[in-house]
Amino acid sequence: MVDTLPTQTNADPDGWNPPMPPTDLIFDDGEPLETNQHRVAMNVLIRSYQQYRIGQTDFYVGGNMFIYYSSTQVKNRDFRGPDFFVVLDVEGTRDRQGWVVWEEEGRYPDVIIELMSPSTAKVDLGLKKQLYDRVFKTQDYFVYNPFDSTSLQGWHRSSAYDEILPDSRGWLWCETLGLWLGTWTGTLDRETTSWLRFYDANGSLVLLPEEVAQQRAEAETQRAEAETQRAEAETQRAEVERLRAERLAARLRELGEDPDLI
Predict the structure, then answer these.
(1) Residue range 125-147, pLDDT digits in tens
(2) For residue 142, which of 122, 124, 169, 130 has the smallest C-alpha distance?
């Protein structure tokens, strides 16, 4: 990791061009995420956003992937990818080992989230924030420490980054995605903490695929239970009608009437 912001040295007026053939790029630095909670937190964001956009293919979401954007950066091997990022209005079904800007028509991430730790906070709030603002021009940038539920911060870019103010719940609005970012306390993958989660505009939690499946299973169980109760109620009603008919028939016989002829 370098201590200064990488600069672009390309002659292209858009600020990027292929620095070398893609086969020369490295896509794995061999460094694991800080902790298991960081890994789970990253996957929660990726998988929940994929679930939110299920059936749509005009976006790409990734995490802990290299983003290649300049010849200087490629030469120095000086930058590891964001923990979570989204690029909108791109072909999302193509397999990618990393995000190579010159292979993506110059597109940079629209939203980035870094999962901080004490060892990365300085870079996440300094060098990376400058990079995402000045070079990537990423519209929304957020940071969060999975071990500190009060650590959520975010910035939205107009001409430069402006801090996003939290609402009364402590949530931050991500204008680019049209979603809230807020905390949710619970157990995921046997880890219990305050997770960073997406919420829709109405404040409903954006569910993970397994949460959607569980919700559907619970709804099906409730439907089956309601159907069982309806059937039991119908059986009881039929039994009441049968007993009423028997009593009426018995009364008619007492009066000398044949109930079968009535």
Answers:
(1) 999 999 999 999 999 999 999 99
(2) 124
Cα(251)–Cα(231) distance, integer angstroms: 30
Q: Can you tell me the distance from the alpha carbon of 211 to that of 48, in angstroms, rounded to the nearest whole number?
A: 10
Q: What share of the chain is helix, strand, coil (3-state, %, to 5)?
A: 35, 25, 40
List where CATH 3.90.1570 sits in the chain.
Answer: 22-207
Residue-wise pLDDT for 207-237, tens only, equals 999 999 888 887 777 887 888 888 888 888 8
Strands (E), the chain: 59-62, 67-68, 84-88, 99-100, 111-115, 140-145, 148-157, 161-163, 172-174, 179-188, 191-199
Parallel/antiparallel/unpaired status of strands 179-188 and 191-199: antiparallel
Whole-prediction pTM value? Answer: 0.77
**C-alpha 195: how far from chain center:** 11
- Please determine, looking at this structure, whether the domain spanning 22-207 carries the CATH number 3.40.50: no
Contact 115, 83 (CB under 8 A): yes
